[in-house]
Amino acid sequence: MDAYITTYNTVVTILSAVITGGFVLILMEMGNRKNRESERYRQTMIPFAQKLSAYLRYICWIKPHIVNPKPLNEGEKSFLSIIHALGCEGSDLLENGGSFDLNSFTAKDLEHFCNNINHIWYMYDRRWIDRFKWEEADSSYQELIDKELAQLNPRYLSMPEGLGKIAKISGEFYTDIFMPIQDEPYSHEASSKLYSIQTWIVSLSLFFVLLCLGLLVCFTLPIRLLKLTTISVIMLFGLCMLLLLVNENKQLYCLYRIKEFKKALKRKKH
């Protein structure tokens, strides 16, 4: 009986220590890492979001200047569709009085969005939109157009208006503003997914320890089961510690390999 009481007290002490000094601290550290990653991403992407917002508002203001030919061919329809979509985004920004919301787009969506911006330059370079004309519109908008251009790059203010200017701004936006940060959204999504998986693992481990403590309070368990429970908890704690100690890039690579393995299995089944 004395041996059982000694083992019981030891197990309860270990489980309590693991909860208060282990899993809770691990969850706090994971939360801190997630917050640091979010702050780093925000600091990197805010300047980009501001530039993108200025570009979209610029497209919204210059839309009335673009006169399209009739009937439209496929290339011209594509150009007009892109201008319309970007202009609508700019109009929404003007109505809401805010900047482009990066959280409303996935990394893939954002890349597709910026590829469309670059496509404006491509269509101009390939002379797909030669039949479009630039028409002077309400000059009261010029001050608003200049304001957006100044945010993008002040040197655009001295360039003559026209489709060539739109194409140049679009191409340079893609190469000078988007390309330097194009990997950041993917990296942030991968890190966020990793932190989510880590949190689930630690939370489930913590739940298991609490369940074990509840069983110890309600039932008299055999010594072997007590020892097995202790070993299991220690192993879980070790696994959770590895989540903090192992390099995040290695963990992301493991997730990538697992994802590729699942895809391979699906292809094999089909």
Shape: elongated
Low-confidence sequence ranges? none
Global structural class: mainly alpha
Mean pLDDT: 86
Give me the Rg, rounded: 29 Å
First CA to last CA: what distance?
60 Å
Q: Note the total helix count.
A: 8
**How many beta-strand elements?**
2
Write down the secondary-structure element order.
Answer: HEHHEHHHHH
Number of domains: 2
**Helix amount:** over 70%
Q: Which band does the percent of strand residues land in?
A: under 5%
Biggest sheet, spatial arrangement of strands: 1-2
Main beta sheet: strand number and arrangement? 2 strands, antiparallel
Protein topology:
Layout: H1 2-62, E1 66-67, H2 74-96, H3 107-125, E2 133-134, H4 142-152, H5 163-178, H6 184-218, H7 223-245, H8 248-269
Antiparallel strand pairs: 1-2
Helix pairs in contact: 1-2, 1-4, 1-5, 1-6, 1-7, 2-3, 3-5, 6-7
